[in-house]
Amino acid sequence: MTVSSDLDLNVLLADTEAEILRVVADHDPSTIGVYEMIRYHLGLDGAEGPRGKRMRPLLGLLAYASIAGEHTRALPGAAAVELGHNFSLVHDDIEDGDVERRHRPTLWTIHGVAQAINTGDLIFSLSRVALHRLTDLGFPDRTVLRLMRLYDETCVALCEGQYIDIASSASDDPMTVELYFDMIGRKTAALIAGSIEAGAILATDDDEVISRYRRFGWALGLAFQLNDDLLGIWGLEHQTGKVATDVARHKKTLPVLYAFEHASPVDRERLAALYTLAEPTEADVLEIVAILDRAGAQGYTRDEAQRWRDTCLAELDGLEAVDSAAREQLRGIITSVISA
Fold first, then answer.
1. pLDDT, greater one: 263 or 334
2. 204-232 confidence digits (pLDDT tens)
3. Cα(172)–Cα(169) distance, rounded to whole angstroms?
4. Does residue 3 have a pLDDT over 50?
5. pLDDT category, 340, cuts 50, 70, 90?
6. Is the N or C terminus of the chain more exposed, i.e. has fewer CB atoms within 10 Å?
């Protein structure tokens, strides 16, 4: 079997969302409210507005399709990946105090912290329930168990990365660049690598092929996060949909951490002082960006993003896909999402 040369990402997206809706359907009249909350957070409540790119499940489906020749049998895995990602976002919004996600109020600002935490926990549980349908579709128990182990290990890494993030944010001293790469490896790269590895696990028993897909996903995850760090400071609003003011929100992404390590003593002291301001002015933000530029932070971050993107593309080129269509779709996602 070969992949259709006109593999349509819109079809994959629609099929993924239909599978998610099957999982988050109302289970009991007395609990309808919590499922409405889930659908709201996922952007599947019928309202107009952005739902997110669903990049992680799409990547997993394309990895599966590039080997197996079709995508439908892997849909429960795709649904699990997207639900797993979104349970962490519900909790992230609470932990970070974010009041808006995808241009809508976050769940906790509408229903309160307690209900939002519970909803996030339910999304996590449903993500595991989604995986059980793989058994109904005829996948061997050993394959389903291997996928569940990957899923659990990925969630552990995600929570470890979040611990590092929260602990470092509470500290007066910025984390090192080395620790930052460790953190984003656990938070971003592990989830994207796990999504792609999951697709490969469902499609083949060849451990070498599965490992190569994981390496591809890991490099993609790092490149994706570093590109986001660039856009968060130097991105244009019409391209990213948000004002490039990560520094105004005191976010210590790679460019800022690099500047703390490599700026001149005077600039480093000034940068530390500016980062203590509760409400930096536009002039303060511009001064911070100028310090980052003098330290070479933009160039360093761009070089690292490009390095990991090129590593990702090299791994992709080495994959022996059943058909080139899915591989080209993967390449297209990489080049469209990572602009560094």
1. 263
2. 999 999 999 999 999 999 999 999 999 99
3. 8
4. no
5. low
6. N
Task: Write out the two tokens for 194.
Answer: 């796990």
For residue 164, CA distances in Å to 74, 185, 225, 227, 270 come to 33, 11, 16, 21, 25
Element (H, E) at 122: helix 113-136
Q: Helix, strand, coil: what percent of the chain each, to 5?
A: 75, 0, 25
To the question of pTM greater than 0.85 for the whole model, the response is: yes
Q: Label each residue of 169-230 as H, E or C.
A: HHCCCCCCHHHHHHHHHHHHHHHHHHHHHHHHHHHCCCHHHHHHHHHHHHHHHHHHHHHHHH
Of all helices (H) and strands (E), which one includes residue 70?
A: none
Does residue 143 come out as left (phi exceeding 0), alpha (psi in the -120 to 50 range) or beta?
A: alpha
DSSP state of 37: H
Residue 217 has which token pair? 């996903």
**Bridge-based pairing state of the strands 100-101 and 104-105:** antiparallel
Q: Please write the tens of the pLDDT for every residue from 106-141.
A: 999 999 999 999 999 999 999 999 999 999 999 999
Give the tokens for residue 195.
């999504």
Q: List all residues 6 or more positions away from 43 whose beta carbon is below 8 Å from its beta carbon.
A: 49, 50, 51, 52, 102, 104
CA atoms of 313 and 330, how far apart (whole Å): 9
Q: Classify burial at 191, counting beta carbons within 10 Å of its beta carbon; exposed 0-12, middle 13-18, buried 19 or more.
A: buried
Could you give the CA distance from residue 316 to residue 339 in angstroms, rounded to a whole number? Answer: 18
pLDDT at 241: 46
User: How many helices and strands, by DSSP H and E, does the chain display?
Assistant: 16, 2
* Residue whose C-alpha is closest to residue 7's, from 81, 61, 54, 74: 61
